[in-house]
């Protein structure tokens, strides 16, 4: 028995559903192109969520992330990373941006933080 491209597509779809990357309804559309677009969007979204999780891991491993304000800003930044947007902080947030830059991967994370001008 050979493994067809349809078998491959079905297996990928099941994996995406089992991993909660997409809902099963994504694959109910008869248009294979629409299915592919939704599956790809799910995979990209999952990669952003994974980046946000790596950021939170870096924050929690840091001995400097013990105050409530830093942790709150870190959660807000993780949400911005997952959503591919930016966290806008008041100009008084420079200490947090310095903290983020000092983390492993800080250069990547700091792209998602903007300080409002004074």
What is shown here, in short?
By secondary structure, the chain is mainly α. The protein has one domain.
Can you tell me about this structure?
With 118 residues, this protein is mainly alpha-helical. It has one domain. The protein is built from 5 helices and 2 strands. The chain has helices at residues 5-18, 32-61, 68-82, 94-102, 106-110; strands at 87-89, 113-115. A two-stranded parallel sheet has the order 1-2. Helix 2 (32-61) runs antiparallel to helix 3. The longest helix has 30 residues, at 32-61. The model has no long low-confidence stretch (mean pLDDT 91).
- The SSE order reads HHHEHHE
The total strand number stands at 2
Measured distance between first and last alpha carbons: 68 Å
Residue fraction in strands: 5-15%
Task: Give structural attributes.
62% helix; two-stranded parallel ribbon; mainly alpha; 118 residues; 2 strands; 5 helices
Secondary-structure topology with pairs:
Blueprint: H1 5-18, H2 32-61, H3 68-82, E1 87-89, H4 94-102, H5 106-110, E2 113-115
Parallel strand pairs: 1-2
Helix pairs in contact: 2-3
């Amino acid at each position: 028995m050979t493994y067809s491209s349809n078998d491959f597509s079905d297996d990928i779809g099941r994996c995406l559903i089992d991993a909660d990357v997409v809902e099963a309804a994504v694959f109910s559309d008869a248009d294979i192109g629409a299915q592919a677009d939704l599956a790809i969007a799910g995979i990209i979204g999952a990669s952003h969520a994974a980046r946000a999780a790596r950021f939170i891991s870096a924050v929690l491993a840091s001995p400097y992330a013990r105050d409530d304000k830093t942790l709150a800003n870190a959660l807000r930044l993780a949400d911005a990373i997952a959503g591919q947007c930016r966290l806008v902080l008041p100009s008084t947030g420079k200490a947090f941006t310095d903290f983020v830059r000092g983390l492993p991967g800080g250069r990547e994370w700091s792209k998602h933080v903007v300080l409002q001008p004074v």
